[in-house]
């Protein structure tokens, strides 16, 4: 091989798509500190703090709270493979791409997914969920997405979890885009299993997936009759390393530097406080909304359940989707998101997540879009 | 929560355990560059180079070559869940911890593992492998560990793979600790599926697992009758993102910054060249060997199949394992590895991997051990 390879210097970007979002420079700095051994006492001290800080962010006392050493999709899979056994039945609510991914996960566990479908861009209908629960008294869990990244819809996590509990089901929640951006109260809302991602409102690098399991969920795992189909994601083994019961058994080599970064990102959230962080996301969203409506862009999702951190607007008639996004990227270094699945070509998704949810990004986005759409 | 959390500053360490190994500062620098979107054209260019550089490191033309977005254990799992279906039979060679992990993976796929056991610290016996192949004409694959991290033994990857092919089986190789440290020739040795890790001889941060599948392995995946049990590790979906057939479909959010780091680490290996890198590992091993034997430490593994990058020595009689490792860590900032499994308390494992395989580390280790063992 005679080719030459240069070190990779990324172009300057402002990330306002559906994630990864702009990473706080303090987090990039933490990321690059020298690697420690994954059983070093100093590193184990860090792991303990990460666990405590995740309990804070999720608002939970769950002992089984830690980051899975892989992206959000693996966090999703860790929840399903640990809680489900072949033959189980799960009610899955879908009003966007990620409900469909849950269905795939359920099926690959040899379980049945009973789908509750709602129009993309609208909320999951509580009445439909209750009907599904009545029609399926043998369901083990209700699974849904808190913040649908593909549409910008907030589902009513509190109400759906309450419904699930009333019908003696576990509640399983996708909080990939909600954690740190909008209200989330794992213990208060009686959520049994939840997973998130680091690259959205935590403003950390992509690659880890915080998860948490309630006492009831842990009991279900303990009572399993079949082994968890994934060795890598088997919570019983993973927790042997994360210190359940005081143990520190080697399972896999933790992504040490990514955990430095997650620690720093949770520390920043802790210093700001949850309510102030949620309020900042809301305020930045309001400012962006005024700016976009001023230049004639219309929001798709009803205001009552619109996510502040993921703003979905219709692409105006006659405007070329790919051309506009291409100009924003090449001329302004600005990334916004395309539509996913059935919304491809019809909408843009503008993220205001974590560190990136600030006035400078809001102004820059409105100004760049104004300039490009005028042509 | 009133606790205060400080930013984490890792203590100064020299990592000479079984991995993670000392990370090259150039790689830590690359790691901390600003995050790009996972579908940004500039990032896709980087992915293409990572793929090319991995083909170089593995010495393969395999199109299905890429890093799994999770640690080596997930790379191992990706190989088994994609190649196996319930009812399949695999011959698994075990002469250390990691052969046992392969067995667990095979079983969790609903397949049968026929074990070929050898003493820990000795090589896998080719005759036993051939007997197992003769006794199990329905076996689909032979799986083994190239460099057993738990013992420092090199198994004869070329000979075992040839045997597997002669009996019409796929060969599955764990190269977590071998890639970049000793000779490895995926195409020349007819290896069908292989996985590695980034935190050993590539001197990169932990968290990614390079994998490669031969044409024959891809045909087996294509002919599957059942879906891959893992959505996250389903190669058909993963390759939709990594550009098989020119596609770039969103699957999961890639760990962007870790891929910057892997790119830099492979670039460094490419600049050095494979043979020079292997030779450096061997030379550093010889120097360490002299130093350790001078202070009375004995190697466990026969010289003919000893790994240069993982040096296993017996703990002398009357020496307290934990005390010595504790003193090395607290007084010298030096991490060496404990024994794993049945070798716990009996051996130390001293890594000389990648960037860490240098004279300074060799000298420091011998000098620190000399000082501590004299007490």
TrEMBL record, chains A, B:
The modification N6-(pyridoxal phosphate)lysine is found at residue 200. One of its GO terms (biological process) is glycine biosynthetic process, by transamination of glyoxylate. Residues 43-339 form the Aminotransferase class V domain. Substrate binds at residue 349. Its cofactor is pyridoxal 5'-phosphate. One of its GO terms (molecular function) is alanine-glyoxylate transaminase activity. Gene3D superfamilies: Aspartate Aminotransferase, domain 1, Type I PLP-dependent aspartate aminotransferase-like (Major domain). The keyword Transferase applies. PANTHER family: ALANINE--GLYOXYLATE AMINOTRANSFERASE, AMINOTRANSFERASE CLASS V. Belongs to the class-V pyridoxal-phosphate-dependent aminotransferase family. This is (S)-ureidoglycine--glyoxylate transaminase.
